[in-house]
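ERR on first pass: missing label on line 2. Operator R.T. fixed the label and resubmitted. Corrected input:
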Amino acid sequence: MLGKLIKYDFRCLIRKFGPMWLGLAALALLNGFTVGHVLESDKFNGVLAFILGGVPIMLMVTMWIALLVMMVVFVCERFYKGLLGDEGYLMFTLPAATWEHIASKLIVALVLELITMLVGALSGILFSLVYDAKGFMGAIEEIRRSLQEIGFRLPAGSGWFIFGLVLLCIFSTVSSDLQIYQSIALGHLARKNRAAAAVLAYIAINVVMTILISVLVPMGRGFMNSIFLLLNDNSAEAFLQGGNRMLGLMLGWCVVKSILFFFGTNTILSRRLNLE
Amino acid sequence: MATELVKCTGLYRDFGDVTALDGVDLTLEGGKIVGLLGPNGSGKTTLIKILNGLLQPTAGQVLINGCAPGPESKSIISYLPDRGYFPGWMCVGDMIDMFRDFYADFDRNKATEMCRVLGLEDGQKIKTLSKGTREKMQLMLVMSRQAKLYLLDEPIAGVDPAAREFIMKTILTNYNEEGTVLISTHLLLDVEQVLDEAIFLQRGKVVLHEGVDSIRERTGQSVDALFREMFRSEQW
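pass 2 clean. output:
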């Protein structure tokens, strides 16, 4: 059933964000053209330059801000309204387990965040290619040549470091989304003002996490010091070793938080669901 | 041999100071049309939500076809809530696809035929439909399933007589005759003639559960007349 739930959540995602992603890519192309041919040209000035060159930039910035706000709203709304509002009467009567509903929302939120990041990178590349394709390709070639000249190569074990970084990015996003779900689930326990209760729960979770970190870090002082010693070492290998340990620690923290939030949310929605 | 499709034992549910269900013991068998009757606030919707797993009882046990409410029971229940549940972004076709994907007992041809009667097309956005059409579409989806248990929460409340007729006709011509239909309502006059059994719910308690023929024989009056007599002092 998880695959089927993802299918419909994904359809919703594409309908809401598809036009926006395409619009941003198109605006990047347009801005690449207008910056080069309008703002940096003598042919246009005054109001005309503002309309042809300034407006597309303002439009792109506004759309990016709107997209980022919409992303957060989507993650909250799809869970809050999609499961605990009127739509919940449909979703929770489907023959699917509660954990599948949570996992579906989480996976689609993660896809949203990943695609938005990719659209950002793609927009940057499109802008640069249209604005000055030769200059862009030249810059890439220059970086490659410089690295070759100084004989730069990644130290042994870098692959794990990069892999760890990617995992950390994924799990920190997962734990952030799950913290939102956990807060909404806790808010659902309140008899009235559930949205306000969810906000309070979010703040309370942050406070508890901060207290936990401030208690746990001094307990592992020896381990932390060994990491800092390695990070301050001049050799790349030692730095990498320290970095790997630090990454492992942060990754572990995110994984533990994710597990706690997932099971906490699942327990509340399985045992205390109350669609009034 | 009669089979127990629904079994509630000592079901209790409160909302703070308000007791919605107060020790409900109830058994429903397959192949019946049952009226869940009671005035507003008697606990009808609470009971239906508990049967669906949308609400957890404070105490007591529910078994649907021998299982506690969960994915297994949900696959045999077709539920019509007392409110609209369509996601705003969906088209008519999306909803039909969704029901076909999730419910093995969904009859796509029946749904298409009912859509034709309602004048609905696959590409129509649900949020552009009128409230009445959305309600009818919801009923169409629910009745396009060959479910073992239909839970219909106030299907005829707040609609005009013509719509009531359409709703009752849709229910009666499409339900799975081997399954059980539980209709909650306080508008007994429109449903009495189709009921096999009646359950009277008063302040969270089952005060009567009996076959409608038996009620008529025993009391010498219609179920509607008995209902009015019993709940005369209650707010409808």
